[in-house]
Design goal:
alpha/beta, 252 residues, 7 strands, Rossmann fold, 15% strand, seven-stranded parallel β-sheet
Length: 252
């Protein structure tokens, strides 16, 4: 097993990419703290992992709130005795629309969830990684951070910030043997698909988006989970500061 005896936190793991990552990590031997703001969804994922023979615990926490992030990290330490891997997956977007039509409230929510959360999780997890002699941080960013689409300007900016923050963290934390890498999925089959599209998620409306992806399909949770598994494993021991596009060629 590629993550045997590793302890991981996966944020936003109640659905979509986060659910896929949490389940894949558990299949490979990790003990997983499943985080989400939706308790029903998060508890379901944790229970499904346990039913399949894995080790998981659910923790409800808003990754944009300092006290809740601190409690989440403590929960992982108390439940499993340490922390080796942090996956910053929780994210949100504003609906695809002209940039001046995005409300201030939506802007603030996007940046709190997609950017401030990176500061807060680092603040509370990095000291434990240092005590443990290293660790792996994975940030689920987006192709939007390197190949932006019109109509998602503020979301694009939040993911561009996530990529630069991750690279800077990699440079600064490398001497502590803390690796930081990013994954850039293309639009995927998640609960936010219609928000990214700006129209209902129908086969007809998907056509224009699929036309920009050479492999002709969206990213799936399994695609992103497999990339995260590699970056979290010892196989990637010499990889830090990298951005791995899981995008079917969208960024070519």
């Amino acid at each position: 097993m590629r993550l045997k005896n590793k302890i991981a936190i996966v944020t936003g793991a109640g659905s979509g990419f986060g659910e896929g990552i949490a389940k894949r990590f558990a299949q490979e031997g990790a003990r997983v703290l499943v985080n989400d703001v939706n308790a029903t969804a998060g508890e379901r994922v944790a229970q499904e992992i346990r039913t399949a023979g894995g080790a998981a615990k659910f923790c409800k926490a808003d990754v944009a709130r300092d006290g809740e992030v601190a409690a989440m990290v403590r929960d992982a330490l108390d439940a499993f005795g340490g922390l080796d891997i942090l996956v910053n997956n929780a994210g949100t977007t504003h609906r695809r629309k002209p940039l001046l039509e995005v409300s201030e409230a939506d802007f603030d929510k996007v940046y709190a969830t997609n950017v401030k959360s990176l500061y807060l999780t680092a603040r509370h997890a990095v000291p434990h990684f240092r005590q443990r002699g290293g660790g792996a941080i994975i940030i689920i960013a987006s192709t939007a951070g390197v190949r932006p689409r019109p109509g998602l300007t503020w979301y694009n900016g939040s993911k561009g910030a996530a990529i630069i923050i991750g690279k800077s963290m990699a440079a600064e934390l490398g001497p502590d043997r803390i690796r930081v890498n990013m994954i850039n999925p293309v639009i995927g089959e998640t609960g936010l698909t219609s928000e990214f599209m700006g129209v209902p998620d129908t086969p007809e409306n998907r056509k224009s988006f699929l036309a920009t992806i050479p492999l002709g399909r969206f990213s799936t949770p399994r695609d992103v989970a497999n990339a995260a598994l590699f970056l979290a494993s010892d196989e990637a021991d010499m990889i830090t500061g990298a951005c791995l596009e899981v995008d079917g060629g969208r960024c070519v």
